Fold this protein.
Amino acid sequence: MSNEKTQNEQIILDKLFESFSNIEGSVRRERRIELKVSKDHVLSVLLYAKEQLSFFHLSHISCVDWLEDNQFELIYILWSHETQMQLFVKILIDREKPVAPNIDYIWRHANTYEREIREMYGIEFKGLVGEQEFILEDWEGMPPMRRDFDTKEYAEETFFDRPGREDAKDVREEIIERSREELPDFAKKYSRD
Amino acid sequence: MVNDRDSQKIVDYMKNFARKHSLFVMAYGTGCGAIEIPPTMTSRYDAERFGIRGAATPRQADVLLITGYLATKTLKRVIRVYEQMQGPKYVIGFGSCTINGGMYWDSYNTINLLDKYIPVDVYINGCMPRPEAVISGFIKLQQLIQDGKADGWKHYQDNLDDYRENQKKVIKNWNMPDFSW
Ligand code: SF4
């Protein structure tokens, strides 16, 4: 990319490419770089980014459930105060045996994010210390943020509905007709009939 | 004198009159609704002219406000607080979240119908009810108290088993005393 606006981003990306041979990456837009790393190399990439490229700040660890591909994606979002840039480091892990490296000795507050991800997605972090229970209390069964966990079904089973709402009307058909749109597939299971 | 029917009426009237004009509200907020309490209490809407004011502990409080969605985790604490309050005690449910789950109707972690877990005397609808609505809810409660109809707490004591069954359905680890009053 020879865009003048993203010159600095390109320089940093090139530095990363020089140091690591097996990573993919691109400049998404101004001040945002994206890297795809294998699970085994993520620790060295993160350490390099922190120590050499001034990405001192870990903003967040985010998780995506790619149910169809049978994978989880972890996204480490780093921020550099010096260059005012964001670095996304993405790794894919197997959904059947979800194990990821623990990084809370690099950034201590990563501990909190990892515990949350462990609870909500059921991903194990190797060597993570901390109570198993984080936000939920006495939770049994599938971690609730996984996409194959059906919250609606669970809520219907567990909680009570207000009586007198059985005849509530599904107005979405009318809205769709009026605005000439289509009901997306994922929304169809919420139809009342 | 108390055996006389009419004089009992007078005594009840006096009792209810006193109760309805000194509603001490438990300072316990859940959900978004707790943010509506400060404007209700402070000078603009000044709820204290109706005898509504805060109480620091459950033992001193008459009214428990459930101000919005209730996570199952919070429900456990709410039950504990409710049972420690001394009768007569009243519950007001704020907002659509306490009535039918509101925008959290399909959430895995918030209850939908509050009345199944603790007896609600007055619901205030809206998402979120404004202070005017809150005060009108309180006035409704005062009317119920005056008419002697706000007896959810008696209903709770009589049907404790039913309530417990519902409560234990969502609170899996019941590590509290079975009676806390
Ligand atoms: S009714 Fe609306 S404002 Fe009140 S707790 Fe629920 S979502 Fe929040």
